Amino acid sequence: MSSSDYQPKPEHKFSFGLWTVGNRGRDPFGEAVRPTIPPNDIVALLAEVGAWGVNLHDNDLVPIDASPSERDRIVREFKSACKRHGIVVPMATVNLFYDPVFRDGAFTANNRDVRAYAVQKTMRAMELGAELGAKIFVLWGGREGTETDACRRPDHAVKNLRESVNYLCEYNIDKKYGFKFALEAKPNEPRGDIYMPTTGAYLGFITTLDHPEMVGVNPEVAHEHMAGLNFVHAVAQAWEAGKLFHIDLNDQYPGRYDQDLRFGSATPKAMFWLVKFLEDVGYDGPRHFDAHAYRTEDVAGVKDFARGCMRTYLILKEKAKRWNADKEIREILAEVNGSPTGHVGKYSSQNAKSLLNRSFDRAALSQKGLQYERLDQLTIDVLLGVR
Q1: Beta strand ranges found along 118-184 (DSSP E)
Q2: Nearest to 275 by CA among 311, 325, 327, 326
Q3: Where are the domains of the chain?
Q4: Can you tell me the distance from the alpha carbon of 284 to that of 81, in angstroms, rounded to the nearest whole number?
Q5: What share of the chain in percent tops pLDDT 70?
Q6: Is the pTM higher than 0.90?
Q7: Which CATH superfamily is domain 9-325 in?
Q8: Which residues does the annotation mark as catalytic?
Q9: Contacts from 209-213 at CB under 8 Å and sequence distance 24+?
């Protein structure tokens, strides 16, 4: 495949957030280095680089203190810009972490009025998302955590989180919005510890909700890598459970602060397995890039960043096809993984008796090498373009 073929198309469902390409390069040690890009201009920028969709927090578009008339004007103009540039809004979310009122959390804050306000703010963000055509609503509890566990019992925090999500599900049903909620985990930052640190934690939490069918997860590369975990495994668990409602793509060196690097720029081998998995299983949801350009970049560099995210995904997609078609790789897989699923079948008393009476040759099972070294090197060869 030539480099000219790695061009994004609407069917790829590539999306970016207003907060991602609009990131001004501010960090804890330095002020912003890029000018503010108005939301309508971000829509035009995304159309220029070939993206399909734009996602947003409520206050990315509408200031938190905007009057109703200002809100309606802003939304009307934004919808017009999206229509003009052929950009859709697949996902919306709510900012429950920036304003000082959420300094002790939102759904889990000690103050019950703060918790109620957080639910109210989310309801209004859902209204905004529905008006823009979004069908996925992400909830990231960036302030739902602690610096000291002296502040509250953690089981109370979980109960309050559950009450809030249950309430929002009922509101979703009542208003007929048709949202699927996607819960996003993160181990820490901005809080010292966040209550739902991993995708697996949220998968367990979802089973305790009143409407678990309405709620899934939004795994993010950086958030699992921050904890030193294997992101592909988290995504696979979510997919197997039928809960992969959305996904945040970026990159991250394990053990660092939340870097939100350009997709595939830090751990290309791991991202290869991710892309291969998504394509192999037929994931059909948005491929959202929750990342931002280096602080060194101007607006032109932001465009380079956005193009790079999509280009790398498409390169890895093509590499995955090549890997799947490679004759030697297929032969090794057929030998070592000829029966990829199933081993004992469904339990019955007779089945158990038969299994207990079965004889296994442990020595024979343990003697033959599995060729994983060769398989991994063939993968490297494919990725480096020599195969």
Answers
A1: 136-140, 145-146, 180-184
A2: 311
A3: 9-325, 327-383
A4: 26
A5: 99
A6: yes
A7: Divalent-metal-dependent TIM barrel enzymes (3.20.20.150)
A8: 57, 60
A9: 209/162, 209/165, 209/166, 209/169, 210/166, 210/169, 210/170, 211/166, 211/169, 211/170, 211/173
